[in-house]
Design brief:
Elements lengths: L1 E5 L5 E3 L7 E3 L2 E2 L27 E5 L2 H11 L6 E3 L9 H5 L1 H9 L6 E5 L8 H4 L5 E6 L5 H7 L6 H13 L3 E6 L9 H8 L5 E5 L8 H11 L1 H9 L3 H17 L3 E6 L2
Parallel strand pairs: 1-5, 3-6, 6-7, 7-8, 8-9, 9-10, 10-11
Antiparallel strand pairs: 2-3, 4-5
Helix pairs in contact: 1-3, 7-10, 8-9
The chain binds iron/sulfur cluster.
The site of iron/sulfur cluster (SF4) has 9 residues, from loops.
Length: about 270
């Protein structure tokens, strides 16, 4: 793993995502190395063309200090998403604590804050998160079964640990959500997932698999070598009718489990 400390020129970036005004990304790159990661395109813009995804991380050592300056100048900021093209709680956060430093700044401003991660390291910051009044924490869960997740999201903590983290955050009074995405046909078990999420989240968001994302060829290579039984269906692709049925099933399961489905995002 190549870890480099860098100085960033700005902390906040404007966002086009729904209900998000600004994004904050404490790192460039992500050690979790998920094979479906849509953020892989960022390599082109960050001087990492020749690097392999999951094997480099740039640490923005000055981002918390810059954030403080930017927020002082712009007191009417909107909603912030922490971790849009990186994971703010990836393993390197244990050593550097950049995300924690960012939260220590944000707690003084009380902007609406959403955090999306795949790591239970977020539990370390429960004390600060409970002091941010309009804060929600989401954990992404794609496969539930470890035999899939260890190939598909090789360095992320197990799905069981992510479910446990949601439960503990929820019990601490923090608004929680699960981001189930991308849904991987044959691999993502929505029935079991939504049953296990019941009572531990305030809402879920679900996203279909985007077959046009930049690293599709590598994705298919991994499916081919690790789960050859799925290869033919992934190569053929999934029709609109297929996703209509997945969406209907998701809506029914959410209703059964009394979970709000905040969005089902299609590509
Ligand atoms: S955790 Fe998110 S940013 Fe990190 S590799 Fe996985 S999908 Fe990409």
């Amino acid at each position: 793993m190549k870890i480099k400390e860098i100085k960033t020129k700005s902390a906040l970036t404007k966002s086009n995502l729904p209900e998000v005004d600004y994004c904050l990304n404490p790192y460039i790159g992500c050690a979790h190395g998920c094979i479906y990661c849509y953020a892989r395109f960022m390599r082109r813009f960050t001087g990492h063309n020749k690097d392999v995804c999951g094997q480099f991380v740039d640490v923005k050592v000055n981002i918390a200090e810059l954030l403080k300056k930017e927020l002082t100048k712009n007191p009417k900021l909107g909603a912030i998403l922490l971790g849009s093209v990186t994971d703010a709680y990836q393993p390197v956060e244990k050593k550097y604590g950049i995300t924690k430093a960012i939260l220590e700044v944000l707690v003084h401003y009380q902007y609406p804050l959403s955090i999306l991660t795949k790591s239970d390291l977020v539990l370390r910051d429960i004390d600060i998160l409970t002091r941010i009044s309009n804060c929600e924490v989401g954990l992404t869960i794609t496969p539930l079964d470890k035999k899939y997740s260890k190939v598909i999201e090789p360095l992320a903590v197990s799905p069981d640990r992510r479910l446990e983290a949601l439960s503990r955050l929820h019990k601490a009074g923090i608004k929680t959500y699960a981001f189930i995405g991308p849904v991987l046909p044959g691999i993502t078990d929505l029935t079991e997932m939504l049953a296990r999420l019941a009572g531990n989240v305030d809402f879920v968001m679900i996203e279909s698999l985007n077959q046009r994302f930049g690293d599709w060829d590598n994705f298919i290579k991994t499916i081919s070598s690790a789960f050859p039984d799925f290869l033919a269906s992934y190569q053929k692709g999934f029709s609109k009718q297929y996703w209509d049925e997945v969406e209907q099933t998701a809506r029914r399961l959410c209703e059964q489990n009394k979970i709000e489905l905040k969005g089902f995002y299609r590509h």
